Automatic annotation (TrEMBL):
InterPro entries on file: CdaR-like_regulators (IPR051448), Homeodomain-like_sf (IPR009057), PucR_C-HTH_dom (IPR025736), PucR_C-HTH_sf (IPR042070)
Organism: Streptomyces lonegramiae
Protein name: Helix-turn-helix domain-containing protein
Ranges for domain PucR C-terminal helix-turn-helix: 369-426
Biased composition (Gly residues): 287-298
Pfam family, one: HTH_30
Domain of life (superkingdom): Bacteria
Region (Disordered): 276-302
Length: 430
């Protein structure tokens, strides 16, 4: 399939005499033609880009890193490329590193944009007629758009295959028992040898469609698929911390190189967190001790051998993502094996509210006291360590802890009371 894309991109480059680059609609690189008279790019080109006018740094980074940055993506999308039905001319912007203008050929199939062909314009395409009310497009450009339409057919076929894999994964993780067996069999046939290899699940939460889209409809939308990801799907309202409606969680099945190495899963999680859908604002936990940070969080399950145990791996990945959101020391990507007490807390059924003993302490007006109590318990009750961690005098610490005891009625010299308070504060974060 990659050879097919490369051949079609080369056709467009040859027809218009300009370097062409094909990216999917998430700005992931698929294929590219040589720039600067046929010279291929290497790592030294990026460093030399500022001194070599024939090179465009944005294109160079896209080729070397296989993806454009979020800032570059926002710049181009601001010209309406996702809605365009015909070629668009994009002006240069040296401030954004876009040293050359571009002509964007939207790659569409049956009205849906699946990607973009970018043509670098160092000036020799400035007279190319794009078509419109003033007249028809240049014949060369018309042929290029015909080729882009052929690319659209291929990308649409891939999208349908990805959607089918995602449906199988969703049914396997959250379907009824009978449906899970069917989905497992179908997914094993689709993945072939990869189905028996070491695998891990990644959860990204929240995963928000934006623009008021409905989560159920959004699950059928084209989802990012980083390298190493075998299948990806959206699960609406997955887990007690994920509300129903537009907010949802994304599940990604990742192939591992070895059962002891989760690096591919972490890399995939970091990639997915750069997606706009993972950038929804996150509310601060009610304890006042949370991060209040915007953006998504990701969790990685323990490795699994084959598909049979994946339904048990999904709660691990989701719990790790929730823990990453709750505790900034863990995030933005957390592994199930590294979240400590959150493994136990995430498995508890959702409660109507905090434990009565600590309810008053969790009010926003007492956020500083809650933070102090949690730091004290995290430091195993060692006053000097706690004061140093909080940057306060020990007498200030003792005063705050006495206020905590008054509010809660708990004795911080008693082990069981400490355990109750510590778990209640951690639960509030989740």
């Amino acid at each position: 399939m990659l050879d097919d894309y490369q051949q079609l991109v080369d056709e467009i480059s040859a027809a218009l005499g300009a370097p062409a680059t094909l990216e999917n609609r998430d700005f992931g690189l698929i294929a590219f033609g040589a720039q600067d008279g046929g010279r291929d790019l290497d790592e030294s080109d990026e460093a030399d880009g500022a001194d070599e006018p024939a090179l465009d740094p944005v294109r160079t980074r896209s080729i070397l890193r296989r993806r454009s940055t979020a800032a570059v993506r926002a710049w181009f999308e601001g010209f309406g490329i996702a809605r365009a039905q015909a070629p668009l001319r994009i002006p240069p912007d040296p401030g954004a590193g876009v040293f050359m203008g571009r002509i964007c050929l939207p790659v569409r199939h049956r009205g849906v944009v699946h990607g973009y062909v970018w043509l670098l314009d160092d000036g020799h395409l400035s007279d190319l007629e794009l078509g419109g009310p003033a007249g028809p497009p240049d014949p060369r450009l018309a042929r290029a758009m015909e080729t882009a339409a052929r690319i659209g057919v291929l990308l649409a076929a891939e999208a349908r295959a990805d959607e089918e894999l995602g449906r199988m994964l969703r049914d396997l993780l959250t379907g009824e028992p009978g449906g899970r067996d069917t989905a497992r069999t179908a997914l094993r046939a689709a993945l072939r040898g990869a189905a028996d290899g070491p695998l891990a699940l990644v959860a990204v939460t929240p995963w928000a469609p934006g623009d008021g889209a409905d989560a159920a409809d959004y699950r059928s939308a084209r989802l990012p698929s980083p390298p190493g990801v075998a299948a990806v799907c959206v699960l609406a309202g997955a887990g007690p911390a994920v509300p129903a409606g537009p907010m949802a969680s994304l599940a990604a099945l990742v192939r591992l190189r070895a059962s002891t190495a989760l690096d591919p899963a972490r890399t995939a999680a970091e990639h997915l967190l750069r997606s706009p859908e993972a950038a929804a604002p996150a509310a601060a936990p009610g304890s006042g001790a949370g991060t209040g940070r915007g953006g998504g969080f990701a969790g990685v399950s323990e490795p699994r051998r084959g598909l049979d145990d994946l339904p048990a791996a999904w709660p691990e990945a989701l719990a790790a993502a929730r823990a990453a959101r709750a505790d900034p020391r863990l995030g933005p990507v957390a592994e199930w094996s590294a979240i400590g007490p959150y493994r136990l807390l995430a498995a508890l059924p959702a409660q109507a509210g905090p434990d009565p003993a600590v309810r008053a302490l969790l009010e926003p007006s007492h956020a500083e006291l809650a933070r102090t109590a949690e730091a004290f318990l995290d430091c195993a009750g060692q006053a000097s360590r706690t004061a140093q961690a909080l940057g306060i005098h020990r007498q200030t610490l003792y005063y705050r802890l006495s206020r905590v005891e008054q509010l809660t009625g708990l004795d911080l010299d008693a082990g069981e009371d400490r355990l109750l308070l510590h778990m209640a504060l951690k639960s509030a974060r989740l």
